[in-house]
Amino acid sequence: MIDDGSRHRSYCLLLLSHVDINEENLREQAAKYGLEDEIDAVLRYLETHGEVDDHCLPEWDGFQKLAADYEGRLS
């Protein structure tokens, strides 16, 4: 991620939630850049529907609203 702000994390989550990701490859790339913890938190967030204790990630309800907004725009 270019910026570590909540807005950029939300858009990263949105992208990851809508594409088919090779998790092993993603983790390898994260290790290459020293982002293992960040990627782990993001993937757990998506898998558990926001049940992650990370103040940098959005509340699940807010993320769901953002996703709904973009699904409407992409359709």
Number of helices: 4
Unreliable stretches = none
Rg, Å, rounded: 12 Å
The count of β-strands is 0
Distance between the termini: 26 Å
The domain count comes to 1
- Global morphology: globular
Structural class: mainly alpha
Characterize the main sheet: none
- State the helical fraction: 55-70%
Overall residue-averaged pLDDT value: 86
Order of helices and strands: HHHH
Strand content: under 5%
Question: Any overview of this molecule?
Answer:
Helix content is 68%, strand content 0%. The relative contact order is 0.16. The chain has one domain (6-74). It starts with 5 loop residues before the first helix and ends with a helix. The chain has 75 residues and is mainly alpha-helical. The protein is globular, with a radius of gyration of 12 Å. The protein has helices spanning 6-18, 23-32, 36-48, 60-74. This is HVO-2833 C-terminal domain-containing protein. Residues 1-71 form the HVO-2833 C-terminal domain.
